[in-house]
Design a protein that fits this description.
Rossmann fold, Immunoglobulin-like, alpha/beta, nine-stranded mixed β-sheet, 4 domains, single chain, 26% strand, five-stranded mixed β-sheet
Length: 629
């Protein structure tokens, strides 16, 4: 090798080092060609369908140093076998390396000792579902940036799911403690009566709707070969939830997968390689439960992309600056389409997730068809089955959420155009009477606190063209029964006192005022007429009875007055529950005496001064002895 050749080689090496010094800060160490039990991910048929290799290529150019904390996927299932090698580095742990997780079934049953028990059941359904996510996360080299948070929500010893346990799991996943960006639910309601319960549960609908503000919700459609037009399965069929149907290697919706217009995305579901229990460690998994986890990883990947691009932070809600949301983006990928029974589904294409220009996407927005109002109040029964019910002595704020239908398929910008109105209603014999109506806010959420007992209507409105679409929810605040033994006439300001502690008498001076009220009626229906009596004679306001919750009395003369009241048609308050006013003569009022004395002194002074003046004048009019001389 001559000197010139050696020099050229040195120049090339130095040039490479300089170039790499600029390139390396903007790349990352994405893992490639990781094997799982000796199998390459690229060998699975669905790797091509999901466009994994193409996505990895784009991810390798990302500056992942911008990610300050990982994206969390909450896996609501039967638990997890955390010791499986597939989960190394993928599960959430605290700063001390302790595995984090939650047992929602134990939580709702008050079993505090089992809240951290997330061990999987013998079926290892949760381990399989989490394994699908973990394997894809590791294949993408993102185990430091996307983490799985396991939530065990099933009924112990089996794979069934109690609706209250799932509601609690969703609430926990989106709480400030976890802040999950994605929630995977590879579960669906089945069995006699369960479908209707999961479809109509006010608590579930409210919880799902609220969760969509901060997380993408993904659910398996189920494996009953059912068309949602006839029988829909929940939670996948709920608006705002991405319902996942499954297809096989032949590119057709698989025969056992549920399908229909209630669901959103088609994803591979056959022969999905994942973690197993036992000595085999790995095996194949089928069904929409295996398909949903792919979409959950895609949702986390989409948010990660926007964090890297500087458009959102990890702790942001799912709304992006453009007003779009991640759910809308995922259901509008420029991917291939699979059709069954005249319903077309976009498929999951990870290369589109990481590279598609969503600002130019032609979204499949639909016109609003309605608006649903849900809240976190207590659902009523009987006459109040369609209202939230509270007691007048225990009024709590109710948080309402308005959802424009079909949820997730209308322009998200419409959410901020929602208007809120509150009406107070008085029940009439023939028809209800609107006592008041007020506009109280804008946007998708409103918190209502009833001012007192009564009937209220909370209405959300959205304008679509020339049409105003309305959604309504009622609130009934139950008055407490009138109890005579708790009611007494007392001095205003003491109405909240116990009946035995409230003042029962007072002394004033004639022509002075004293204002009286009633104990024990704070939570009763105060629209009922309350009449007042002085010494047994009804107080009038002109020709009409004086009514109200308070009474201002000014005795015209000294004496003793007994003040009583009557609530509606109830007997007049009497005996020890009345108030005795002792009116003293005005002239005995110290202030009156003082003013009288001051007045007398002033009058005396006024009289004395002229006399003195006259006397002086007289003296001046008579000449002195010297003058006479």
């Amino acid at each position: 090798m001559n000197k010139r050749t050696l020099t050229n080689i040195m120049v090339i090496l130095i040039t490479i080092c300089i170039v790499m010094s600029f390139v390396l800060p903007f790349t990352n160490n994405v893992a490639y060609a990781e094997t799982f039990d000796g199998k390459n991910y690229s060998s699975f048929w669905y790797a091509d369908e999901l466009k994994v290799a193409e996505a990895k290529q784009v991810i390798s150019t990302w500056d992942l140093s911008k990610v300050t904390s990982p994206i969390i996927i909450a896996c609501i299932d039967t638990g997890i076998t955390a010791s499986h090698e597939l989960f190394n580095g993928v599960l959430t742990r605290n700063s001390e390396g302790v595995l984090l997780g939650y047992n929602s079934y134990a939580a709702i049953h008050g079993d505090t000792s089992s809240i951290v028990n997330i061990a999987d059941e013998s079926s290892c359904h949760g381990t399989k579902v989490a394994g699908v996510m973990a394997m894809l996360i590791r294949e993408l080299g993102l185990q430091d940036y996307i983490k799985i948070y396991p939530i065990k929500a099933n009924t112990p010893t089996n794979d069934s799911f109690n609706i209250d346990s799932v509601i609690n799991a969703i609430e926990w996943a989106t709480s400030d403690s976890i802040k999950a960006s994605v929630i995977n639910m590879s579960l669906s309601a089945a069995g006699s009566g369960q479908t209707e319960i999961w479809k109509n549960s006010e608590d579930l609908i409210y919880t799902l709707t609220k969760a969509t503000n901060s997380a993408v919700l993904v659910a398996a459609a189920g494996n009953n070969s059912a068309n949602s037009s006839a029988t829909a399965y929940y939670p996948a069929a709920h608006e705002g939830v991405l319902g996942i149907v499954g297809y096989g290697s032949d590119g057709a919706i698989y025969s056992t997968s549920n399908y229909g217009p209630a669901y959103d995305i088609a994803v591979p579901e056959r022969n999905i390689y994942t973690s197993e229990l036992g000595s085999a460690k790995y095996g194949y998994f089928n069904g929409t439960s295996a398909a949903a986890p792919f979409v959950s990883v895609a949702a986390a990947l989409l948010k990660l992309r926007f964090v890297v691009e500087g458009k959102v932070s990890v702790t942001d809600g799912k709304q992006t600056p453009s007003g779009l949301n991640f759910e809308t983006m995922l259901s509008n990928l420029d991917s291939k389409v699979i059709t069954k029974s005249q319903v077309s589904y976009r498929t999951m294409d990870l290369s589109k997730v990481v590279s598609q220009d969503f600002s130019s996407t032609d979204y499949d927005y639909l016109s609003p068809t309605g608006i649903t109002v849900t809240g976190n109040g207590t659902a009523g029964t009987g006459d109040y089955y369609d209202a939230y019910v509270e007691s007048a002595d225990d009024i709590k704020p109710i948080e309402f959420i308005a959802s424009i239908k079909p949820l997730g398929k209308t322009n998200p910008a419409l959410d901020e155009a929602i208007e809120w109105y509150v009406r107070e209603i008085k029940k009439g014999d023939v028809e209800d009477i609107i006592v008041s109506e007020n506009k109280v806010g804008n946007g998708p959420q409103y918190v209502f606190t009833a001012p007192h007992g009564g009937e209220y209507e909370i209405e959300a409105r959205i304008r679509s063209g020339e049409t105003v679409i309305k959604g309504l929810k009622k609130v009934h605040v139950e008055y407490l029964p009138y109890l005579a033994g708790e009611v007494r006439v007392t001095i205003a300001g003491h109405e909240g006192d116990n009946v035995d502690d409230a003042p029962s008498s007072g002394t004033i001076y004639a022509n002075k005022k004293i204002t009286l009220g009633l104990t024990g009626i704070e939570y009763v229906d105060q629209t009922v007429d309350i009449k007042w009596f002085v010494n047994g004679e009804e107080v009038k306001n002109g020709d009409q009875p004086y009514t109200g919750t308070s009474f201002t009395f000014a005795p015209g003369s000294a004496g003793t007055y007994v003040i009583s009241a009557q609530y509606g048609n109830r007997a007049e308050i009497s005996g020890s529950y009345t108030f005795t006013v002792v009116a003293k003569p005005s002239m005995s009022n110290p202030l009156y005496i003082a003013l009288t004395c001051i007045g007398a002194i002033a009058i005396g002074a006024a009289v004395a001064i002229p006399i003195a003046v006259v006397k002086v004048k007289k003296q001046k009019s008579e000449p002195s002895e010297e003058e006479q001389a």
